[in-house]
């Protein structure tokens, strides 16, 4: 499978390295508006360099692409790839409206190509250790989840497009919150039926910098997500409360279990965990192209976008949103 990368920033190098170590995949092209940025990712692997993704798709040098670009660009890039018969791994969030999500899914289905949404949490070693512990039954049912993430949404700390709603779709919720929603739904084991949210705008930012969400899942699991900018220490922790014990998960430390006063470590963080996750995600995508079911379904990825939309609506209205009552298919995030 000849793989192209559209968007050479952030995690492009992790995708490129994954392609190098996996059998049956080669990095054949990298595209970025800045030729030097694309060349920096492409050079170690001898991949072609493009500054126009349409030209790359039309050149016939890729069978599949990773779309690693600002959120609102995902739709048009997926549609263009589908029109060329090219499979797609598109980074989260899938899109900025539910209408775009559905359009992307339909276009890929009509073209007979595979689209998978990159939800990296499903491949992180510390999260997999948590899921393995839950699968043994030793913890009983999941009852409650608290997910606490820090970030930095001070203007100037990240590229300008993150602060432009037309391009990003929002602030901390659609970016960091999408990760939190994804992993909480996965660990909680059901979609959400109700969501309430509040947001803050600090530092003079035009998008939300901080916020909190409270969710009830269809199976009764209670979820609270807190996202805070510019904290004294970086925080990325899930606390999972079960009938018979608790688990904490932190990619900087590992996975820890406590049952009846006895603590044990299920996973110790290693320096290669993040690269291993991106490699595993790419292998999962390749398997999906070959006919296997992907680890992350399109329905799940779309539901994450639906919840981000609902969170913005709840924060604006000041009331919880029932997911069976909200109709946001064509509503922009904001």
From TrEMBL:
The keyword Kinase does not apply. Keywords: NAD. Residues 129-247 form the GFO/IDH/MocA-like oxidoreductase domain. Gene3D superfamilies: Dihydrodipicolinate Reductase, domain 2, NAD(P)-binding Rossmann-like Domain. Residues 2-118 form the Gfo/Idh/MocA-like oxidoreductase N-terminal domain. This is Gfo/Idh/MocA family oxidoreductase. GO terms for molecular function: nucleotide binding. The keyword Cell wall biogenesis/degradation does not apply. It comes from the Bacteria.
């Amino acid at each position: 499978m000849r793989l192209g990368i559209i968007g050479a920033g952030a995690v492009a190098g992790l995708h490129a390295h994954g392609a190098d170590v996996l059998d049956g995949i080669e990095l054949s092209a990298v595209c970025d508006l800045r030729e030097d940025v694309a060349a920096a990712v492409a050079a170690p692997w001898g991949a072609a360099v493009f500054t126009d993704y349409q030209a790359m798709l039309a050149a016939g040098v890729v069978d599949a692409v990773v779309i690693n670009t600002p959120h609102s660009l995902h739709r048009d890039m997926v549609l263009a790839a589908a029109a060329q018969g090219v499979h797609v791994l598109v980074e989260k969030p899938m899109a900025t409206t539910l209408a775009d999500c559905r359009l992307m899914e339909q276009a890929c289905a009509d073209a007979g190509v595979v689209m998978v949404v990159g939800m990296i949490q499903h491949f992180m070693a510390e999260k997999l250790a948590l899921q393995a512990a839950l699968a043994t039954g030793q913890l009983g049912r999941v009852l409650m989840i608290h997910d606490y993430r820090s970030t930095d949404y001070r203007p100037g700390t990240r590229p300008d497009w993150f602060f432009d709603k037309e391009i990003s779709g929002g602030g901390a919720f659609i970016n960091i919150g999408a990760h939190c929603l994804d992993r909480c739904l996965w660990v909680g084991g059901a979609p959400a039926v109700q969501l309430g949210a509040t947001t803050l705008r600090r530092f003079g930012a035009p998008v939300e910098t901080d916020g909190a969400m409270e969710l009830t899942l269809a199976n009764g699991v209670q979820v609270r997500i807190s996202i805070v900018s510019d904290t004294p220490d970086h925080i990325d922790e899930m606390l999972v409360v079960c009938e018979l014990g608790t688990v904490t998960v932190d990619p900087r430390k590992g996975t820890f279990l406590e049952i009846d006063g006895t603590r044990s470590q299920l996973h110790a963080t290693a320096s290669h965990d993040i690269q291993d996750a991106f490699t595993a995600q790419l292998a999962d995508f390749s398997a999906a192209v070959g006919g296997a079911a992907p680890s992350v379904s399109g329905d799940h990825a779309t539901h994450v976008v639906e919840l981000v939309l609902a969170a913005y609506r709840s924060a604006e209205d000041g009331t919880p949103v029932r997911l069976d009552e909200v109709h946001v298919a064509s509503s922009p995030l904001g």
